[in-house]
Specification:
By secondary structure, the chain is of the alpha/beta class. It has helices at 33-45, 61-70, 101-115, 134-146, 160-167, 190-196, 238-257, 261-270, 301-314, 329-332; strands at residues 4-5, 12-13, 16-19, 50-52, 79-84, 86-88, 95-97, 120-125, 150-156, 174-176, 200-203, 277-281.
């Protein structure tokens, strides 16, 4: 797979990265460690050069699995990205944002241990913390950069105003926002800001929690703590509108490119100006089999317009990813 320069750093990444939220199990109905490790190995074997995780994905479980998968010679084959500044109750019933310097200093050591590594390539503030001064958060991240524990400072789910505030104190190398064919709010301000300021992007939710996989049916059911039970996109009648769009997109992809909707959705993402890497979440090795279908072609302006026309015709009641935002500390309390 081709590589891209990660903003103004010396890190190189591939256009598609592996997202490991689901591998952590929490909000995804559990996890299978052996299968998850096989999935990470399969991604690397297929040329994926970035693995993204976070402590809150399974309350350390995802990081532990990633660490085991990268041990034994695979660590240097990928840029390793994780996050910081989320906290949780001992029974895991509550999570909240906490970007204090003390939290960051403690979390980085926990992440390094779980990941079995001596440095994190891209370290990201998971969500902005309105109760902690931005300068305190920024300086704590800068200290880790100077100490060599991280190679790049990133943020996730920040607005342009929050990125401006952060950059008053220290450099910001990257942003991780939600972005896919169905959730395009970042096109208005965030992507233009990142392009203008040479801030790399790692977009998440590329298949919109599986909606764009082409495998969902109108009677699909989600078990246990699966977050899709609380996602407005998966509730009728809205769910039917999105599935109608998926069906039309799949037909278009097959007729124009001899590809399926999954390949179309990811190709669309990595063809967007300002997108450095698009995360692809997978839980089984076979879910990565279509990765070869993304390379060797691109979408022209006419195809982009056709896609927009399909979305506008099918989806009468669109909704974004706002439901995923965790509370601030006082709200959690």
């Amino acid at each position: 797979m081709d590589t891209r320069r990660f903003g103004n750093t010396d890190i190189n990444v591939t256009p598609v990265g592996l997202g490991t939220w689901a591998i952590g199990g929490w909000m995804w109905g559990g996890t299978d460690e052996a299968r998850s490790i096989d999935t990470i190995h399969a991604a690397i074997d297929k040329g994926v050069g970035l693995v993204d995780t976070a402590p809150v994905y399974g309350f350390g479980r995802s990081e532990e699995i990633v660490g085991k998968a990268l041990a034994g010679g695979r660590r240097d084959k990928v840029a390793l990205a994780t996050k910081v500044a989320m906290n949780w109750s001992s029974d895991h019933s509550k999570v909240w944002r906490e970007a204090t310097s003390a939290r960051i200093e403690r979390e980085v050591e926990d992440s390094l241990r779980r990941l079995q590594t001596d440095r994190i390539d891209i370290y990201q503030i998971h969500w902005p913390d309105p109760q902690t001064p931005m300068e305190e958060t920024a300086r704590a991240m800068e200290n880790l950069l100077k100490a060599g524990k991280i190679r790049a400072i990133g943020a996730s789910n920040f607005s342009p105003e929050q990125m401006d505030e952060f950059r008053k104190s220290v450099p910001l190398h990257s942003l991780q926002p939600p972005y896919n064919l169905f959730e395009r709010e970042i096109e208005q301000e965030i992507l233009p800001y990142c392009r203008a300021n040479n801030v790399a992007t790692i977009t998440y939710g590329g298949l919109c929690r599986g909606l764009l996989s082409g495998k969902m049916l109108k009677d699909s059911q989600f078990e246990g703590d699966d977050l899709r039970n609380n996602d407005p996109k998966f509730q009728q009648d809205r769910f039917g509108q999105y599935l109608d769009a998926v069906n039309e997109l799949d037909t278009f992809a097959r007729e124009r490119y001899q590809k399926d909707v999954l390949a179309l959705a990811l190709r669309w993402l990595i063809d967007q100006p300002g997108v450095t890497t698009a995360l692809w979440g997978a839980r089984r090795p076979d879910q990565l089999d279509p990765i070869g279908n993304i390379e060797g072609w691109s979408l022209d302006a006419d195809a982009m317009q056709t896609i927009d026309n399909i979305l506008n015709r099918c989806i009468k009641d669109p909704v974004g990813p706002e439901f995923m935002a965790p509370p601030a500390r006082e709200q959690a309390a």
